[in-house]
Amino acid sequence: MDKWTQLTRRRFSTAHADASTTDRHTGRFLYESWKNASQSLRDEHFDIYFGKIFRCKDMSWGNTMGIEASDEATDWLFRIQDDFEIPISLTMNQMSVPFELLSGNKEVWNAFVDWLGGFYGRGLRSCTICSPHMMRSGLLQRAFPDMTWKNTVNQILDNTQKVANYIALGYNFIQLDRSLNRNVDELRNVRKYVDAYNRANNAHVLTCLLVTEGCLPFCPYKREHDDIQACPSAEPYWGSARLGRMTCATWRRHPQYSALPRQGTNCFWNRRETFETYANLVDVFKSSGRLATSRPDDSDLEETTPKNCYCVIPEKIKGGKVTTHEEFLASWTKGCWIIARDSFAEILREDLAPLMTWNFAFRDIKHPINRPPGYDEMEAFRRFTADHFWNTEEYYDLEKVLMNCRNQCWRCHKCEDVYGVPHMDSAVALPMAVPGKRPGPSDPTLIWSSIRDDTSGQ
């Protein structure tokens, strides 16, 4: 096993597209994608996490995003775990825990233990649970002794003392706050503490970073958005004429500012030495995606044989300054001219920078793309990336700054300088979006003015 295989082994935690599991999206497509994937790619995955909601009488609890995998999709996930040895992980990340669960109501508690026990009996051994009281009581650990217990990133473990506190509660898989994506100095402190704790206690506590995340750093709206999404009777905030336009849409859809790294909390690594720095400090890299709604329908299997891999679609990221939406579209490979690799270790081994050009996706192996005579895939990749924005010294300098900028954008403005846009102290201050209108590139404030109070024309 070479260095790069070791560095990527059991490294990635991938989201299950819960929002896509309608009656037609049963989960077989995902199963077939993993069935055809290389063993090296399977070995790189730590787990696939999914959400379910616990219901008892008139109460429900479970997911900040307000979605869950369908029962049929969950069955396919267990098949993936059984057949390909990729663990699956249940997510219960809702911050507001019903009082009935915490008050000692035996009927509700027993119903919850029986519900969770149904998954445990099928082989589930990993669960995100957002309840410090439950963990401190030790009741969960006694009921499910072989479970790996994860805290949720929504609990904001942004320093080493918080990490120590949550380990003391009984969590043995620590999901760190998004802000540490850009605070390598504190990641070193966390690494030092967790390693010392494991040695002293013969333990195996792991740490995790959510490395793909579209939320604004320190977003003042996030907790309200989480509560809105988790409420079954509430209209999703992004579907509202008012809430969506005054918040996320303001910076995510802005023609000048949407592509800036400061508009989200992703890790930005283009060089393999940057990836290696993070990989030596954190055990698992987690990617978001449970809200994805455009996963291929299982019926597509009649025309497609999918294979999970890493892909580059040159025509979709030519300029490099892509928005979050455009970057997501770059993951679709059906019918596109693509460059593919079977594992992330291959990408690192061959030093195929910039790493950000590679998306975890699937490709159609039933209808392989016809290559021209003499076509060399790696020569084509290096020709494409030779003058790419993400492969410039200017961007590499930004990449280095982002590792320790601590999201203090008000005093830095490195993102704006590299992307060539005017300075701003806070994206929250950007003018709010008006439906159907976008500002011209020379004047970002021209049309993004105050939204209307009415909700007509949604």
Report on this structure:
The chain is α/β, with parallel strands linked by helices and 458 residues long. The protein folds into three domains: 1-285, Alpha-Beta Barrel (TIM Barrel), CATH 3.20.20; 296-389, no CATH class; 393-427, no CATH class. It contains 20 helices and 13 strands. The protein has helices at residues 3-8, 28-35, 39-43, 71-84, 99-102, 106-121, 132-137, 139-143, 160-169, 184-201, 222-230, 243-246, 248-252, 272-279, 324-329, 344-349, 377-385, 393-402, 409-412, 414-419; strands at 12-15, 45-51, 54-56, 59-61, 88-92, 126-129, 148-150, 173-175, 206-212, 284-287, 306-312, 339-341, 359-364. The protein has an eight-stranded parallel beta sheet. Strands 12-11-13 form a three-stranded antiparallel beta sheet. A two-stranded antiparallel ribbon has the order 3-4. Helix 2 (28-35) runs parallel beside helix 4. The radius of gyration is 22 Å and the shape is globular. 37% of the residues are buried. Mean pLDDT is 86; it is low at 323-335 and 438-458. Residues 435-458 are annotated as: Disordered.
Question: Main attributes?
Answer:
single chain, 458 residues, alpha/beta, TIM Barrel, 20 helices, 13% strand
Major beta sheet, strand line-up: 7-6-5-2-1-10-9-8
Instruction: Determine the number of helices (DSSP H or I, runs of at least 4 residues).
Output: 20
Task: Work out the helicity level.
Answer: 25-40%
Overall CATH class of the largest domain: Alpha Beta
Give the name of the CATH architecture of the largest domain. Alpha-Beta Barrel
Shape: globular
Question: What Rg, in angstroms, do the CA atoms define?
Answer: 22 Å
Largest sheet at a glance?
Answer: 8 strands, parallel
Tally of extended strands?
13
